[in-house]
């Protein structure tokens, strides 16, 4: 794999991730890692055509998860090169099919993109999780969910005005469903793990979302769907979340 790192952070985690990735897989196109100074920059991959780009904040690039984040993004690149429907299906097209003629809140529309990203992540991690220890990933999921629960809006009190919006309980439920789906799909933790307690707490905060249904949707995604099958699955998931269409339920 041709890998080049630019920016103010050590290339070591990315080189280590490359070496680990190449024990099982390889990429045809070069990879360019661009380290950004913005601490809020999310880790994401782009595919300009002749190479892949891994964008990552310096904070993430110097964290204990840097190697694992790079492995995850390499897996996205491999899915892209392989033409997997999860990585070739246009999210915008799926949302148009799911929501055409319906009125949807802006925040819920943003959440639908998150659902699509979770489905992509499931397929990327089907690759990543063949490459080594999983303890860091489970801890990462646990920490993220605990943070979201701690930041959820408190019940209003007289004379109290919350300045920051906090985490949205509805998408937190979906995120919790994704976390447990990944754990169960790959047998990463027992049912007495704290992650389950956190997920059930999130589900209680927004009972209308359908936590168990979304967990099954993510966990049971077909390994190798064709384009039509994947499109239907994504349309169903986004429509169910955005408008609560009972005909799109996974049960």
Structure characterization notes:
The chain has helices at residues 12-21, 58-61, 66-81, 85-88, 91-99, 106-128, 135-150, 169-186, 194-205, 211-219, 227-243; strands at 3-6, 31-36, 44-46, 52-57. Mean pLDDT is 90; it is low at 156-165 and 246-251. The chain is 55% helix and 8% strand. Helix 1 crosses helix 3 (66-81), helix 7 runs antiparallel to helix 8 and helix 7 (135-150) packs parallel to helix 9. With 251 residues, the protein is an alpha/beta fold. Strands 1-2-4-3 form a 4-stranded mixed sheet.
Low-confidence stretches: 156-165, 246-251
Cα shape: globular
Determine Rg (CA atoms, Å): 19 Å
What can be said about the biggest beta sheet?
Answer: 4 strands, mixed
Mean pLDDT: 90
Order of helices and strands: EHEEEHHHHHHHHHH
Helix share bin: 40-55%
Task: Tally the helices.
Answer: 11
Could you give the topology of this structure?
Elements: E1 3-6, H1 12-21, E2 31-36, E3 44-46, E4 52-57, H2 58-61, H3 66-81, H4 85-88, H5 91-99, H6 106-128, H7 135-150, H8 169-186, H9 194-205, H10 211-219, H11 227-243
Parallel strand pairs: 1-2, 2-4
Antiparallel strand pairs: 3-4
């Amino acid at each position: 794999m041709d890998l080049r790192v630019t920016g103010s952070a050590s290339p070591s985690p990315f080189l280590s991730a490359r070496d680990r990735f190449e024990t099982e897989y390889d990429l045809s196109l070069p990879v360019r890692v661009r380290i950004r100074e913005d601490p809020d920059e999310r880790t994401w991959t782009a595919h300009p055509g002749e190479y892949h780009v891994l964008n990552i904040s310096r904070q993430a690039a110097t964290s204990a998860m840097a190697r694992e984040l790079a492995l995850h993004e390499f897996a996205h690149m491999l899915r892209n090169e392989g033409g997997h429907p999860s990585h070739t299906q246009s999210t915008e097209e799926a949302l148009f099919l799911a929501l055409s003629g319906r009125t949807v809140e802006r925040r819920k529309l943003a959440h639908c993109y998150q659902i699509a990203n979770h489905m992509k992540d499931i397929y990327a991690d089907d690759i990543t999780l063949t490459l080594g220890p999983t303890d860091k990933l489970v801890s990462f999921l646990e920490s993220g969910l605990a943070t979201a629960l701690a930041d959820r809006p408190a019940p209003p009190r007289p004379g109290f005005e919350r300045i920051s919006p906090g985490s949205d309980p509805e998408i937190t439920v979906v995120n919790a469903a994704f976390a447990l789906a990944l754990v169960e799909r790959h047998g990463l933790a027992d049912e007495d793990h704290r992650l389950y307690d956190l997920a059930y707490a999130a589900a209680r905060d927004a009972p209308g979302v359908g936590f168990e249904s979304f967990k099954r949707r993510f966990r049971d995604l077909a390994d190798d769907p064709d384009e039509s099958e994947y499109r239907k699955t994504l349309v169903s998931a986004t429509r169910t979340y955005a408008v609560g269409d009972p005909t799109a339920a996974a049960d």
